[in-house]
């Protein structure tokens, strides 16, 4: 009620309604303060979490943590670090071609109102919302048990590939749509076919956007743990093949903090994980800057 | 020759697009094939409204976990929504370009931190803090709510900010021209105009909170009980799965998969709401 008269007064003539002004200023000042408090709280949360992990973790580093083989004495994180890189590589090898090709189909090969396209979109959105533990259970039921691949790098990476597929599809689609139609028309006008146009005219300028999606996916793979425990397992050794069980950094950290025996090593592992995440974020914003230039 | 290449390419691209359909179909088939018979065997009513979970004596009631997930998510919203919304308003309409350049990557980093690190931070900082302040065990609904609240912050901030940025500048200028001050123009004109976009961000946050597993399992206590206070331990749908799947067999295993089915249905509903809100904000 009060506010209504206020705005009515304001619209008539703000200067003439001088007595009302102080009241309005108070509510505005409170809102302004709340907005700033929220921003400070957000920044403080980040600084506290990152700062605490760094302060506790950096002194905990020692050469043993990077021994070639893990055992309960040295609590080495090197095998899981290598496993994380392997998991990222294998997952991307599976998911990137699929995701990019699917996006090319959605943008370059379809007509409006296509039923199949609608279903693809709905399922991709559904995939994006499924919690990672549900992916983990599905991977366990399908890859590990039904296909009989056991707890393995392959089972884990296929599960992760389905998980990051919608991310790659969405970012590639956005990047492809940002390419002006005149490029395609020019290419067709010169006599190139659709495939040739896609490969040599449309995809190159869309690369930074696609790269951004890939970097986002790497971040998700590195941070994932719930989907991997029941698909890739927890063996802390560098695998001999894709059918061996592996433990990535995030899973390693989870196992360590559950055991609760090696708190220093857990902090140190957290530091390495954080560094990887910060590096990925920096790369992503770099790619985003390149994208806006195009 | 050329047309063969074109045809092959088209078939390949179509097949790749079909993978996401195949994936969703497989996920549904495999989850439902084990989960639904288990629900039928236990009895849908006993399963969904039973308050006792004792795999040893084949009693499976997941009401405590359903309520646990809902409580933890509500707790996360109480913390995440106000801070997230106000922070989004700050980034969209108050911050100087320099602060924006600093805070935006900060929010992105918050989104990128793995859930195990959030869980670990909760375990070594938040849980001992709660233990000291309230003289309780510490692993609790409160700890889970706070950590989940922080985890959904970046989601809410990013989505709300994008929809605030998308409101036409003329709305703001019109409000100013009518004599409203800056804060008033932002909160009475821009925020309502961005309403469904902001709601979409909140719904996305709900999805993230209800699906979060690893951070919660480390700090929530995981007792099977309907919590009476914020300081009681709680077990959610997700943590129920991750804690027992490692050793479960037979009906116990299928009951855990049925837990995932319930979670899956929750998430599908959340997705539908999100899609509806998104469609509205695009209009």
Automatic annotation (TrEMBL), chain A:
Its main location: membrane. InterPro entries: MetI-like (IPR000515), MetI-like_sf (IPR035906), Phosphate_PstA (IPR005672). It comes from the Bacteria. SUPFAM superfamilies: MetI-like. Residues 1-17 have a biased composition (Low complexity). It is found in: Cell membrane. Pfam families: BPD_transp_1. Part of the binding-protein-dependent transport system for phosphate; probably responsible for the translocation of the substrate across the membrane. This is Phosphate transport system permease protein PstA. It comes from Slackia faecicanis.
TrEMBL record, chain B:
CDD domains: TM_PBP2. Pfam families: BPD_transp_1 (PF00528). GO terms for biological process: phosphate ion transport. Residues 66-274 form the ABC transmembrane type-1 domain. It is found in: Cell membrane. One of its GO terms (cellular component) is plasma membrane. It is a multi-pass membrane protein. Keywords: Cell membrane, Membrane, Phosphate transport, Transmembrane, Transmembrane helix, Transport. Signal peptide: none annotated. GO terms for molecular function: phosphate transmembrane transporter activity. Its main location: membrane. The chain crosses the membrane at residues 12-39, 59-88, 109-130, 142-164, 185-206, 255-277. Belongs to the binding-protein-dependent transport system permease family. CysTW subfamily. Part of the binding-protein-dependent transport system for phosphate; probably responsible for the translocation of the substrate across the membrane. This is Phosphate transport system permease protein. The lineage of its organism: Bacteria, Bacillati, Actinomycetota, Coriobacteriia, Eggerthellales.
């Amino acid at each position: 009620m009060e506010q209504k008269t206020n705005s009515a007064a304001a619209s008539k003539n703000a200067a003439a309604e001088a007595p009302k002004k102080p009241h309005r200023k108070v509510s505005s000042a409170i809102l302004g303060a709340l907005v700033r408090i929220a921003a400070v709280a957000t920044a403080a949360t980040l600084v506290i979490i990152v700062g605490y992990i760094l302060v506790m973790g950096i002194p905990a580093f020692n050469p043993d943590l990077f021994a070639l083989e893990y055992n309960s004495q040295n609590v080495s994180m090197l095998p899981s670090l290598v496993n994380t890189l392997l998991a990222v590589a294998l997952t991307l090898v599976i998911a990137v071609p699929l995701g990019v090709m699917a996006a090319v189909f959605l943008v370059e090969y379809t007509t409006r109102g296509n039923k199949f396209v609608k279903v693809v979109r709905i399922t991709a959105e559904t995939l994006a919302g499924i919690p990672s533990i549900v992916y983990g259970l599905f991977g366990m039921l399908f890859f590990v048990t039904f296909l009989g691949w056991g707890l393995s790098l392959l089972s884990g990476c296929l599960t992760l590939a389905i998980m990051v597929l919608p991310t790659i599809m969405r970012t590639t689609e956005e990047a492809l749509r940002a390419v002006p139609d005149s490029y395609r028309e020019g290419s067709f006008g010169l006599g190139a076919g659709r495939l040739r146009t896609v490969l040599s005219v449309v995809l190159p300028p869309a690369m930074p956007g696609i790269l951004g999606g890939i970097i986002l996916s790497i971040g998700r793979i590195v941070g994932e743990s719930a989907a991997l425990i029941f698909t890739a397992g927890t063996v802390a050794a560098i695998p001999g093949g894709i059918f061996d069980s592996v433990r990535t950094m995030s899973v390693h950290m989870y196992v360590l903090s559950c055991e609760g025996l090696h708190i220093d090593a857990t902090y140190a592992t957290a530091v390495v994980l954080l560094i990887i995440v910060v590096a990925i974020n920096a790369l992503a914003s770099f790619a985003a800057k390149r994208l806006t230039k195009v | 020759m050329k047309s063969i290449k074109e045809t092959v390419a088209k078939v390949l691209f179509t097949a790749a697009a079909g993978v996401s359909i195949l994936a969703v179909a497989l996920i549904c088939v495999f989850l439902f094939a084990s989960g639904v018979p288990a629900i039928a065997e236990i009895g849908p009513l006993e399963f969904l409204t039973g308050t006792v979970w004792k795999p040893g004596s084949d009693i499976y009631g997941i009401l405590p976990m359903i309520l646990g997930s809902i409580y933890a998510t509500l707790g996360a919203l109480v913390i995440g929504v106000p801070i997230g919304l106000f922070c989004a308003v700050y980034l969209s309409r108050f911050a100087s370009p320099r602060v924006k350049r600093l805070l935006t990557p900060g929010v992105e980093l918050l989104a990128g931190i793995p859930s195990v690190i959030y869980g670990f931070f909760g375990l070594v900082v938040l849980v001992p803090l709660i233990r000291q302040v309230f003289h309780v065990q510490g692993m609790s609904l409160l700890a889970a709510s706070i950590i989940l609240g922080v985890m959904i912050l970046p989601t809410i901030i990013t989505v709300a900010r994008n929809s605030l940025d998308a409101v036409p500048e003329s709305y703001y200028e019109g409000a100013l021209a009518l004599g409203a001050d800056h804060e008033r123009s932002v909160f009475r004109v821009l925020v309502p105009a961005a309403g469904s976009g902001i709601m979409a961000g909140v719904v996305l946050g709900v999805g993230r909170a209800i699906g979060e597993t690893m951070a919660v399992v480390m700090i929530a206590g995981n007792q099977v009980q309907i919590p009476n206070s914020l300081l009681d331990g709680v077990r959610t749908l997700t943590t129920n799965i991750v804690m027992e799947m490692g050793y479960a067999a037979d009906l116990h295993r299928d009951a855990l998969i049925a837990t995932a089915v319930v979670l899956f249905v929750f998430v599908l509903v959340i997705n539908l709401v999100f899609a509806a809100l998104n469609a509205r904000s695009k209009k």
